[in-house]
Amino acid sequence: MTVRAAIVVTGTEVLTGRIQDLNGPWLADRLLELGVELAYVTQCGDRADDIEAQLRFLAAEGVDLIITSGGLGPTADDLTVATVARFAGRELVLDGPLEARIAEILRTLLAGRSGVDFEAVMAANRKQAMVPAGAQILDPVGTAPGVVVPGSPTIVVLPGPPRELQPMWSRAVETAGVQQAIAGRTEYRQETVRMFGLAESGLAETLREAESGIDGFAELEVTTCLRRGELEIVTRYEPQAAGAYAALVDLLRSRYPRELFSEDGALIDDQVAALLAGRRFATAESCTAGLLAARLADRAGSSAYLAGGVVSYSNAAKVSLLGVDAALIAEYGAVSEPVARAMAEGALARFDADTAVGITGIAGPGGGSAEKPVGTVCFSVAVSGRPTLAHTLRIPGDRSDVRERSTTVAMHLLRSELLALSAG
Amino acid sequence: MTVRAAIVVTGTEVLTGRIQDLNGPWLADRLLELGVELAYVTQCGDRADDIEAQLRFLAAEGVDLIITSGGLGPTADDLTVATVARFAGRELVLDGPLEARIAEILRTLLAGRSGVDFEAVMAANRKQAMVPAGAQILDPVGTAPGVVVPGSPTIVVLPGPPRELQPMWSRAVETAGVQQAIAGRTEYRQETVRMFGLAESGLAETLREAESGIDGFAELEVTTCLRRGELEIVTRYEPQAAGAYAALVDLLRSRYPRELFSEDGALIDDQVAALLAGRRFATAESCTAGLLAARLADRAGSSAYLAGGVVSYSNAAKVSLLGVDAALIAEYGAVSEPVARAMAEGALARFDADTAVGITGIAGPGGGSAEKPVGTVCFSVAVSGRPTLAHTLRIPGDRSDVRERSTTVAMHLLRSELLALSAG
């Protein structure tokens, strides 16, 4: 039997796209891990009627579990709890102990802040202690408590800030209301294969073959998507279809030996981080202007191998900070393989590193020429004791696409060079 | 009379959060500009039943216009057009001229690629030339055409890639189907005020005052949200409420003279870019590792004032590339105001710049101490001919929060210093 869930993201700021919703995707992963099928994610503004209409629709669709995010704040436009209570036919009651807890939290928060009228803040926050009768309270991580309203569907009401929502979800899962809603769920497996340097339509062809060639292929829920220039193939299946999935992976492996770089869901970032362990890495970036260094530093522990980098946006900086020969720039232009090489080798020397990447390109919208149109990017990978590689690509898209994809290309060039290295 | 619209984002990869939906937010802005009220954004997987259920729900809610995004590709899991056709009670017909156009586009795309079976690719793409009878075709920007199916509601079917969806939306708006759907819409204005260094609950208090103190405040649809450490107040209103809005802005101005930094919706990035015009700027980043430089370089034309930057992740890099005195690091620690100052001044010198920012901090999860816990970040702004500023903050959140918010804090410190400068 399949258990279906839906996520209702409330908040005009999310609906109008002024802030990106991080809770839908995060909750989607958690539901998947639980073996619960996510049917819908819906967003609506801070309007009681719209929120209630969504709840009615989802209940009518027969979902077993609804998770709402947002609308628990102190401001008047936060009305999720009241709306859920009305929908569930339960009255709102002031929970004394909860009100005391919130007061406690606010006292700590405001401690030391001058010019804050504590009573006014408490009044603003008192509504956060109003909960649907019979609902289970989820203690606040910030100042906003959540609630679990058991029923069909069971409704879990969580705050908007991911830092608060995430720990509160873990508690919500343990409540009787949620456990009863997700009882009898099916176990699903999900596997991810990643490829680089392959067109989606080519893959579509291969998948059509698999459809006829692989027994039980129909039991695999395969979705493909292009992402940062990489092709991601995610397959969801019940355990008995494991054989069909193995056959699919074999097919992809044999068909795309060069393009397939990850069978275990590992990101290129994970692979590069592992390959850089024990090394000393530096970057020399022009058009990406720090994106590659920042992407590497995004993971904890990166300081073990990331020495640093130079953003040599101007030609003068290429010369003074990376020791690029000005004559090289004059002869070949700032966007050229010789300059990319000199940048990477300059980074090696200046950071006393053993591995470095150089990137110089034309992100646009201006600066293109017939010979070097916008999107032309030169990459270089320098490893001490080996000849320095250089590679030029024309990357499609607008300024930010070109800059972001360039970091992805650089990660893949770095990976293959380090693999070749470890292969001997 | 209000015209209401809804956006249906299809695609399992979006539903499951593996790719971020950029179309919902973008279309939301376009609808707002048109004076059309966005009621819902819904996401569902590539399942015909779920997509159709959404369309039924939205039609029942009486929306005048539905825009779908995604599911127009060549793969079998792309079935939006067929689903919309069934919902609208129109049969799918193969459009000959359209098929020819798609073939044309594919020929150009695949030109020069070896080992591509053109006929197989055409077969894969033939389904993209099947359109609902009587629908208006939107020529493809990529390979996927869109359609406008007139009716109540009118349904606009657009492809998922933003680069294709955006130009095709502009064409869709001109079609008779959409024009009829949005006829008689109300004109709305939307204004944005931005503040920095203010708690949301404090603002909530001020807004409650405004509720009682300002005539016609009820006609203002005010939404507030915390975003990258900034507080954004967006107000939507019909023209006759302009007076009430002006009164609200006066109140905010008088109450938050220091925190209010933008009344015209301009981002801190816009303001800093304007203030940097004619200057020569450089960065020295440790924990942010290039995020600040990359953020500045994100806008076209930034090369006019952005000389470059150093990512001095290791102490050795701070010394060798920025000339930070090793004794300073030994005495005060790498995360200290003296080192932040030396980094900024080092960037000033090395890039021959007149303005520089230094950032050094503990992003976590490790590296914190009792005296300098995770989130401790030291900032410095150096302007040639002026004393170098230094400032230490404790920034909440996880590693990526700390790193991203640090760039925002740096932008604001830079702004106020440059404003003070221009004020003489």
Task: Output the keywords.
homodimer, 424 residues, alpha/beta, Molybdenum Cofactor Biosythetic Enzyme, Chain A, Alpha-Beta Plaits, Maf protein, 3 domains, six-stranded mixed beta sheet, five-stranded mixed beta sheet, 17 strands, globular, MoaB/Mog-like_dom_sf (chains A, B), CinA (chains A, B), CinA-like protein (chains A, B), MoaB/Mog_dom (chains A, B)
Q: How would you sum up this structure, described in words?
A:
Chains A, B: It comes from Mycobacterium adipatum. Chains A, B: Residues 6-180 form the MoaB/Mog domain. Chains A, B: Belongs to the CinA family. Chains A, B: This is CinA-like protein. Two copies of one chain form a homodimer. The first copy, chain A, is α/β, with parallel strands linked by helices and 424 residues long. Chain A has three domains: 4-181, Molybdenum Cofactor Biosythetic Enzyme, Chain A (3-Layer(aba) Sandwich), CATH 3.40.980; 189-266, 2-Layer Sandwich (Alpha-Beta Plaits), CATH 3.30.70; 269-422, Maf protein. Helices cover 42% and strands 23% of the residues of chain A. Chain A contains 16 helices and 17 strands. Chain A has helices at residues 12-15, 23-34, 48-60, 80-87, 96-110, 118-126, 162-173, 176-182, 200-213, 242-255, 268-276, 291-297, 315-322, 326-332, 337-350, 399-422, and strands at 4-10, 37-44, 65-69, 92-94, 130-132, 136-138, 146-149, 154-158, 189-196, 221-227, 230-237, 260-262, 281-285, 306-311, 355-361, 376-383, 389-394. In chain A, the strands form four sheets. Chain A has a six-stranded mixed β-sheet, with helices on both faces. A five-stranded mixed β-sheet of chain A has the order 14-13-15-16-17, with helices on both faces. Chain A has a four-stranded antiparallel β-sheet with strand order 10-11-9-12, covered by helices on one side. In chain A, α3 crosses α4 and α11 packs across α16 (399-422). In chain A, 48% of the residues are buried. The mean pLDDT of chain A is 92. The interface between A and B is large, with 100 and 99 residues. β2 (37-44) of chain A pairs antiparallel with β2 (37-44) of chain B.
